[in-house]
Amino acid sequence: MALVLKRSVLWTVFMAHWATLLCAFKPSQDSELTFLLPAGALECFFQTAQKNGTLEVEYQVIAGGAGMDVDFSIVSPYGINLVSEFRRSDGVHMVDPTEAGDYQICFDNSFSRFSEKMVFFEVILENAANGAAVVEEEEEEWVGLGEPENMLEYKLEDIRESIDTVHRHLEKSRQMQTVLRAFEARDRNLLEDNLWRVSFWSCTSLAVMIAVAFTQVYTVRRLFDDKRKIRS
Q1: Preceding omega of 97 cis (within 30 degrees of 0)
Q2: % of residues, the chain, pLDDT over 90
Q3: Which residue(s) pair with 128 in the sheet?
Q4: Residues 6+ away with beta carbon under 8 Å from 197
Q5: From which residue to which does any coiled coil extend (predicted)?
Q6: Confidence at 9, pLDDT banded by 50, 70, 90
Q7: How far is the CA of 142 from the CAs of 7, 24, 61, 157, 161, in angstroms?
Q8: Same-domain check for residues 14 and 90
Q9: Residue 134 structural domain
């Protein structure tokens, strides 16, 4: 009976710390956005970053004119142009390490006077200070569980590392699925645009062929009518 009670208490403690660990996972700082960039317009977005972190930006033009391209730039908090790309449909750029302040992410469609563009971009932000603080805090929480670990014959540190690994893999999977959805949307828009063009020119060619056929039949009939008139 005492053994059962002891196991029940240890199991309760284990589940309580398990819940604490799950709550320790903070919401991801990654952000993504799909927006419509008008013709001849410039759109800029700002992302706050901490010192000595990493900032990764991935963008893709998923719909728009025939070129499906934009100008892209990243400007540091001190006004330094870190990245400049011209007439590109997609790209991935990383700023490492970052400076404390607001980074400016700009998409320029001023070279296009008629075609608006639909742009998808994702910002992946990692702050070194926050990551170290979270790891240190989690380590302090798990230090006091040495005795239940020995009694339950579980290595709680290994469990925590496994959960962290699963969490990182899930985040990477989510990011990859988001990027794949953007590629799928872009390919679908290209197919729809090409289908419209093929259908339009096919109908145009068919109409021209029918018009030419009627013209030829009419011309031949007129020639035969003229011959009958001359003979008579």
Answers
A1: yes
A2: 19
A3: none
A4: none
A5: none
A6: very low
A7: 19, 12, 46, 7, 12
A8: no
A9: 1-28+128-154
Whether 183 is covered by a domain: the verdict is no
- d(CA 162, CA 103) in angstroms, rounded, equals 34
Shared domain for 96 and 141, answered yes or no, is no
Beta bridge partners, 101, equal 49
- Cα distance between residue 93 and residue 219, in whole Å: 65
- Whether the CB-CB separation of 182 and 60 falls below 8 Å is answered with yes
Give me the CATH number covering residue 121: 2.60.120.380
Q: How many domains would you assign to the chain?
A: 2
- Say if residue 149 is in the same domain as residue 36: no
Query: By the 8 A CB rule, do 104 and 55 touch?
Result: no
All residues at 6 or more sequence positions from 167 whose CB lies less than 8 Å from its CB, including other chains: 25
Nearest to 58 by CA among 42, 74, 44: 74
If phi > 0 it is left, if psi is from -120 to 50 it is alpha, else beta; for residue 197 that is alpha
Local structure of residue 99 (DSSP, 8 states):
P
pLDDT confidence of residue 21: 47
**Is the residue at 54 inside a domain?**
yes
Nearest Cα neighbor of 123 from 95, 83, 86, 81 is: 95
User: Looking at the predicted structure, is the pLDDT value of residue 85 above 60?
Assistant: yes
Task: Determine contact, residues 65/117, Cβ cutoff 8 Å.
Answer: yes
Q: How far apart are CA 199 and CA 204, in angstroms?
A: 8
* Residues 86, 108: Cα–Cα separation, whole Å: 9
- pLDDT tens sequence across 98-122: 999 999 999 999 988 888 888 889 8
